[in-house]
Each structure stands twice: as structure tokens, then as C-alpha cells.
Write a structure and sequence with these properties.
The protein is an alpha/beta fold. About 40% of the residues lie in helices and about 15% in strands. The protein is built from ten helices and eight strands. The radius of gyration is 17 Å and the shape is globular. The chain binds 1,3-dihydroxyacetonephosphate.
């Protein structure tokens, strides 16, 4: 089945209010790309401003994390409902940097995905193995456990992002063969759990996606788009990646 691709930029902890100029370049550069969904996920401080700036454009705005609860005594945290209220349409959950630096477990990631569903945000749920896990031959087992623990029951109403930890920010990517293998495995797991609905779930690849390797990675079977980190910060690098679908 043909799935509509999504290219999402994860800005991580980068960007100040002046960065709206970069968003505007991305908006201008994508306005004629009718065959691809485009998203920018800025830090929370920029969400409302970016959402206002992007209204009516082809660029959706997403957040990078949410708290599972709708409100409460959780200093410094942000509820999915608040992200939605600020204009976000989606939220990344379970990014390896959250899992690593903030000790997020699969159960926490699932609760965040459920919070996204509750608030009407599309969750982008991240999974991926470390270098040591791949070297030990455990890549599939690790991703299987993450999928079993992090995905919410019921609808397959989320996007998945396969981001091998060792490919993030390293300039190194898996071979197309390895990407095909893992994305096919993820599709199988989704189908076993959600049935036919899993055919509609987008599986993004993330980890050192750049203009010079994106065409090869995005052509792989079961790769329905990309979650782009560093190369999404500059329109001149992000646009050539989106344009592959344009
Ligand atoms: P890079 O594209 O900078 O490797 O980051 C990938 C990523 O973590 C996106 O969420």
C-alpha cells in the first residue's frame, strides 16, 4: 500500500526566536511539494511562535517530548495538552536521547504515546539499538523489546522512527540492506499486533540523514520518510532531503 511519506526535522536543543527565519525558508521551499508531509519539531520555547508562523503552510509543527499526565505538580514538564494548545500537531516520544539522558523506560514511552493520543497529537515513537547491541547481534531483539514495551495498544495511530543510536550525529548510517531488514522486521511486528491497520503506519528512518545519502535511504522498502536531526536546522540542507519526494 502507498503510504504518504513524512520528513520531520528534530531540532533538539537548538534554536532561538530568530530561527523563525529558517522556518520561513523551509515553508517557502516546500509549498509546492504536494506528495510529502513536512514537519519541524523545534524546542518547546519556539512551539507557539512556529505554529503561528506556519499556519496555512505545508509545514506542520511538532514537539520533542511530553509528560504522560494532563496537568499536575511536575516542575519543568509539559503536558501533551499544552503542546496541542501551543499549536503542535505531533510529538516525538522515546527518542534515544530521552531514553539515555533522562532514563526513560519503554513503559514511560508508552504512557507518553498514550498522552499524545489522548490530547489529539500524532506520536512519533522512536526505537533503535546501540552499537554494542548491534555488534553483539542483538539489534532485532532490542528493537522487538522496545516495540513490545513502547507501543500503545489499540490503534496503530502513530508513526514509528527507527533510529540506530550509533547512527545519530555520527555521520555513519546503516547500509540500505540493514535498513530494509530492520524496517521489514518492524512492519512484521506491527502487522502481528495491529493487523491490516499496520499497513498505514509510517516507519521513518533517522540517524545522519543528509542531502548526499537521503535518496538511497529513502528508496528502501518500508522506509516512509525520515526523522532528520542536524541537517534539519538549515533550510539549505533540509530542503534537498524533502525534495526527494517532491
Ligand atoms: P542526526 O540527523 O543529527 O543524526 O539526528 C538524528 C536524530 O536523532 C533525529 O531524531
Amino acid at each position: 500500500m502507498a503510504r504518504r511519506p513524512l520528513v520531520a526535522g528534530n531540532w533538539k536543543m537548538n534554536g532561538l526566536s530568530a530561527s523563525v527565519a529558517e522556518l520561513q525558508k523551509i515553508m517557502a521551499g516546500t509549498q509546492h511539494f504536494a506528495n510529502v508531509d513536512v514537519m519541524v519539531c523545534p524546542p518547546a520555547t519556539l512551539l507557539a511562535g512556529f505554529a503561528a508562523a506556519a499556519r496555512g503552510s505545508r509545514v506542520a509543527i511538532g514537539a520533542q517530548d511530553c509528560h504522560p499526565c494532563p496537568a499536575g505538580a511536575y516542575t519543568g514538564d509539559i503536558a501533551a495538552e499544552m503542546l496541542k494548545d501551543a499549536g503542535a500537531q505531533a510529538v516525538i516520544v522515546g527518542h534515544s536521547e530521552r531514553r539515555h539522558y533522562h532514563g526513560e523506560t519503554d513503559a514511560m514511552v508508552r504512557d507518553k504515546a498514550l498522552a499524545a493520543r489522548r490530547s489529539g497529537l500524532a506520536a512519533i515513537i522512536c526505537v533503535g539499538e546501540t552499537q554494542a547491541e548491534r555488534d553483539a547481534g542483538h539489534a532485532r531483539a532490542v528493537v522487538r523489546a522496545q516495540l513490545e514495551g513502547s507501543l500503545p495498544d489499540g490503534a496503530a495511530d502513530f508513526a514509528l522512527a527507527y533510529e540506530p543510536v550509533w547512527a545519530i550525529g555520527s555521520g555513519v548510517t546503516p547500509t540500505p540492506h540493514d535498513v530494509a531488514d530492520m524496517h521489514g522486521f518492524i512492519r512484521q511486528m506491527l502487522s502481528a499486533r495491529y493487523g491490516d491497520a499496520a499497513q498505514r503506519t509510517r516507519i521513518l528512518y533517522g540517524g545522519s540523514v543528509k542531502p548526499n545519502n537521503a535518496a538511497e535511504l529513502l528508496a528502501v522498502d518500508n522506509v516512509d520518510g525520515a526523522l532528520v536531526g542536524g541537517a534539519s536546522l538549515k533550510a539549505e540542507e533540509f530542503l534537498p532531503i524533502v525534495r526527494i519526494y517532491g
